[in-house]
Each structure stands twice: as C-alpha cells, then as structure tokens.
Design a protein that fits this description.
Elements: H1 2-16, H2 28-35, H3 45-55, H4 68-77, H5 80-101, H6 108-142, E1 148-153, E2 156-161, E3 170-174, E4 182-194, H7 196-199, E5 205-206, E6 222-223, E7 228-240, H8 246-255, H9 263-292, H10 297-310, H11 316-333, H12 341-348, E8 367-373, E9 376-379, H13 396-407, E10 412-413, E11 427-428, H14 431-443, H15 447-453, E12 456-460, E13 468-473, E14 484-489, H16 491-495, E15 498-503, E16 506-509, H17 512-527, E17 531-539, E18 563-572, H18 579-588
Parallel strand pairs: 15-18
Antiparallel strand pairs: 1-2, 1-3, 3-7, 4-5, 4-6, 4-7, 8-9, 8-18, 10-11, 12-13, 13-14, 14-17, 15-16, 17-18
C-alpha cells in the first residue's frame, strides 16, 4: 500500500514538472528520422502498426473504474446503512434469544428486523439505480461525436479515428477542426488556434513552421491536442499522443486528485458516531442497572438490545434518499444532471462561489472608466451623449497617454457603422482594446486615420509569459526624431520596465516617491473592481535606429527596458442583467461571492 502511494505521488510530481520537450527545436529531418516517417508520404502502414504497438493508442487513460458490484455494495453498506444493518442484526439476535427461552416469543423484534432490512435494501437499490442511470447518460455523451483525423499513409490521404494516430503521422488540419494530438507545424496558411483552455489567451494564436520560443507553450510551431483551429489550414507531424500530450498531463493531474467525502457524508458519519456512542452508553448503563435490580441476565440482554435499537433512527435513511432524489429531479427539469445524489446536498451547503468575471458575470463590453496621468485619477465620460463628467482632453499627460492607447492597439471598428454612436459600434478585437479604442475615438476622433499616418513597423503581441504588448511606429509628429516605441500591459510589468515618468509634460526619474504614487493609484482603481492596464513609450534614438532599420520581433533587437511611464487606464465591464438578482439570492442564502 505504501509503495503504491509513493509511486502515485512520484507520478504526480513528475506531471507537475515544467514541460520539457525538444520536438519544437529540432529540425524536421531529425523528427522524420526519429519517427521513421516522410513529410510527403507519411508513415507506411507497416511502420504505423509498429509505432501503434510501441506507443499505444492516441487516447487519454481513463480514471480507474469502480466495478458495478462494488458501487452496489457501497450503496447497501456505507455510512448510515451500516447502522441500520446493525440494528436489524440486533433485532434478529434478540428474537433468537427470546425464541430459545420462551415457547411463544413475542414477534415485535422479528418484525422490526424485517422492516429495517427492507428499508435499507430498498433505499440502497434506489440510490444505486439513480446514480447508475446518471452515469450511463454521462457515458453516452463521450461517444456522441467521435473524432476523426485526416492523415497521410503510404502517400494517400486517409480519414481514420483520432485514437489510431501514432507518432510520426502527418495530419492535415483545417479551420473548425479539433487538433487530434500534439503536432509540429510543418506548413501553415493563415493558421490560428484557440489556446484559451491551456494558456488563457483570449485571442486566436497564429501558428507557423518557425521555432520562435524556448518554451513549448509559447512557440508558434506547436499545435496542442484538443485545442480548436479557428482560421486557416496546416500540415503537422504528430509528436506526442495520449497521456504524453500537454492536455494529457493536465488530465493526469486532475484525475490524481482525491475528491474526499461530501459534506453530507461527513455529517452522517459524525451523526453515526454520536448516535452509536449514546445508544451503547444507555444500553450498557441500563444493562448494569437491570442486573443490580435483580433481573434475569436474559431479560437484561434483551433490554440492552432493545435500547440500542430504539436509538437508531430507522426512517432517516429513507427520508434523506427521497429528499435528495426529489431535488435531483427538480434540477433535471432545469437541464442539470446530478451524477451523485450526495452532490445535491453539497450544492446546498455551498459557502463560497468563485466565478470568472469577464463574460460570465459581465457583458464582456469593456468601457474605460478612469485614467491616471499627471499624478491624478480622472473619471472618463462614459455617457452616450458625452454629457457626463468631462476632463481636460488637451492636458499634456492625457495627450501622451492617448497616443499610446491609439497606437498600441489592434482593435478596429467593423465597417459600415458611421451612423452608429461610438460606444455602440461593434469592434473586431479584444474587449479591453475595444474599450480603449472607443475612449480614444471619443477624445481624438479618426483613430484609424491617425494609425495610418503613424505606420506600425514591428509588433510583439501580448502573451501569457510577458504580459505586455509592444509596437514600434513611424510618427508624423515633427517633435519626435526617430521611431516611437509604445507598450501596454499588466501595470506592475510595465512599471518594472520604466526608468522615467512623464508628469505635466515633463519627464522625471522614476523615484520611490513616484512608485508609491503609482501603487496608491493602482490599488485604488483595482479596489473599484476595474481592470487596470499600464502604458509607457520611448523614442528610439535615430543614430542607433535609423530609417529603414530591420526591426525583428523574434530577436527583440530594440530596447524593452528604460522606458517612460505615461499612465494607467482602468476599465469596467457592466454586469449582465440577471447577475445582481442572482448575487442577492446567493447572499440571502449565506453564500459569499
């Protein structure tokens, strides 16, 4: 037992290690030799069978299944049911003692034993039936839409079940497909994938054959199992399958977690201990008293058993099962399938609900609410007719912050909305960038024209590692001699890259005093429940970065430190219409949210 537990812990620790693979670094030729395949023809049928035999199917190992007879026994002999079985056995024992001592023994203990046996058997069968029915429905979902993959075998394109893929298979993926395994991208035509389930990036990520990052989660030449292709097409080589994929490692970690007992199971176990203690104490006490009063030992034993059985609440198990089943049926009528009856009570004992905010509790329609520049927090005018609180749109601090907000932004208005109010226009792009776009359009106007006049020459998109987005622009501003670098991202990441700060149009060193002022503003805006972004810029010296300089986003051949901090913008996302009422109901039930 100890050795098995140690092995399981070792496996979990191995899964928790940083992902270490080299399939994104080595050449395609090296991979072809490693997996005995060819890019144009794919695996031969013989080699595919050999690889399949060596590496196994491309499927996640299911968690160990509990046999049906064990599930049935768990319902019949677990928790409170054991107490009822004990009560029934004691009743039959008492009847047996009475039958041996009297010619016509009373039948009450026999009837009580039969009733207890019937109650625990019926409720056990009922609970098992309810849970097995739910389990069968969940199992049927798995095979609802089986996944297939288009791969090259012996120079021919064949469609096979994704589970039959093996290392070295050459697969073709198009938009709308789910990537069938971890693949090394060999060819890509405008190919983008949705990696949100793995890395949290909300925008589709471009994929190409180039090796761009040491971290396999960040490089562009790897497509991950179970992520969805949202644009373009690609040809890739299968480099990891099943449990060895990134998603397989996550599934392994999740399946290795111990679920523990449900709250109602803990409560019932605690109740059983109390009832058992009280019953045994009272039974033994009266058994001793009966002896002292001179009762026959047989009568004293019957007395002992009767008191213990009397303390067993025979109807509790049936009552709990019926109540949970009725609640489960009510939830089923609202399209909520309950897999385990005890889970119903768990929902009722919820003390805290943790929820994603953006898009779940909110409308995912961000609006800039506040800005921090020139060492003061300014409230933005978010009213449709711009009749709300106005701020000085000609302030030097705002003009600098506004410029970075316009240029370091990939969001664009959808065409054909000239007659629609700016705040109601639809936008292509991230919700936060859409909010900044609308804010700057309201204050400056013709943002798209301004971007055309300040052409972007290089860009590093936002990613989950850097937590910033940076772009380099040619500029029409005659006061700027050279390229302008603009950056936005997580405020703390932006601040650590800045050595100066601009206040009222003057550039000053980033001293501890200014860092404290930043921290105060950041905490105040964050305390309002708003999403805060930091902004900075830097004029690249013309002697080092002359006109036509070959900027390279992959090599990062331009400075990303020693920048100038310009300010903060905070955005608020209005809640969905039903959210306030739902939160009030949760709080009235004593739930924190």
């Amino acid at each position: 037992m100890g050795r098995g537990a140690a092995k399981k812990k070792a496996n979990l620790n191995e899964l928790k290690q940083e992902l270490e693979i080299d399939v994104h670094k080595v050449s395609v030729e090296e991979l072809c030799k490693r997996f005995k395949t060819q890019v144009e023809r794919g695996l031969t049928d013989t080699q595919a069978k050999a690889n399949f035999a060596e590496y196994g199917p491309n499927a996640l190992t299911p968690p160990p299944q509990t046999p049906e007879w064990v599930k049935f026994c768990q319902q019949m002999f677990s928790g409170f049911a054991c107490l009822l079985w004990l009560g029934a056995i004691l009743c039959f024992l008492a009847y047996g003692i009475q039958a041996s001592a009297y010619e016509e023994p009373p039948d009450d203990n026999l009837y009580l034993g039969v009733v207890l046996t019937a109650v625990v058997t019926v409720t056990g069968i009922f609970s098992y039936y309810q849970e097995s029915k739910s389990a069968a429905i969940m199992e049927s979902f798995k095979n609802l839409v089986p996944q297939y993959a288009l791969c090259r075998r012996d120079g021919e394109k064949v469609t096979i079940p994704a589970s039959e893929l093996t290392l070295g298979d050459i697969v073709e993926v198009k938009f709308g497909d789910r990537i069938p395994a971890d693949i090394r991208v060999l060819e890509a035509r405008g190919f983008k994938v949705d990696n949100s389930s793995l890395t949290g990036e909300s925008e589709p990520q471009a994929r190409s054959p180039e090796f761009t990052h040491e971290n396999p989660l960040e490089t562009k030449n790897i497509g991950f199992f179970s992520t969805n292709a949202v644009e373009g097409t690609c040809v890739g080589m299968v480099v990891n399958i099943g449990d060895n994929t990134v998603m397989g490692r996550i599934a392994g970690l999740a399946s290795g977690l111990d679920t523990g007992d449900t709250p109602i199971a803990k409560e019932i176990a605690h109740f059983i201990h109390i009832i058992t203690g009280v019953a045994v104490f009272l039974g033994v006490s009266f058994f001793i008293i009966a002896f002292i009063l001179g009762y026959n030992w047989l009568d004293a034993v019957i007395f002992l058993i009767g008191i213990i059985v009397a303390n067993v609440p025979e109807g509790l198990l049936a009552t709990v099962t019926v109540c949970l089943t009725l609640t489960a049926k009510r939830m089923a009528s609202k399209n909520c399938l309950v897999k385990n009856l005890e889970a119903v009570e768990t929902l009722g004992s919820t003390s805290t609900i943790c929820s994603d905010k953006t898009g779940t509790l909110t409308q995912n329609r961000m609006t800039v609410a506040h800005m921090w520049f020139d060492n003061k927090i300014v409230e933005a005018d978010t009213s449709e007719d711009q009749s709300g609180s106005a701020f000085d749109k000609e302030a030097p601090g705002w003009k600098t912050l506004e410029r970075v907000g316009i240029l370091c932004n990939r969001a664009e208005f959808k065409p054909g909305q000239d007659n629609v109010h700016i705040l109601k226009r639809e936008v292509n792009g991230d919700a936060s960038e859409a909010a900044i776009l609308k804010c700057t359009e309201l204050s400056k106007g013709n943002v798209m024209g301004y971007r055309k006049n300040n052409k972007k020459v290089c860009e590093i998109p936002f990613n989950s590692t850097n937590k910033f987005q940076v772009s380099v622009h040619e500029t029409e501003d005659k006061s700027i001699d050279g390229y302008l670098l603009v950056m936005k991202g997580a405020p703390e990441r932006i601040l650590e890259r800045c050595s100066t700060i601009v206040v009222n149009g003057k550039e000053m060193p980033m001293t501890g005093q200014w860092k404290d002022a930043f921290e105060t503003a950041y905490m105040e805006l964050g305390g309002l429940g708003e999403r805060v972004l930091g902004f900075c810029d830097f004029v690249l010296p013309k002697d080092k970065f002359p006109t036509g300089y070959p900027f390279d986003a992959d090599e990062e051949n331009f400075p990303l430190d020693g920048l100038r901090f310009v300010g903060l913008m905070s955005m608020i996302d209005p809640p969905r219409a039903a959210v306030p009422d739902a939160v009030v109901k949760c709080r009235s039930a004593g739930i924190k949210s």
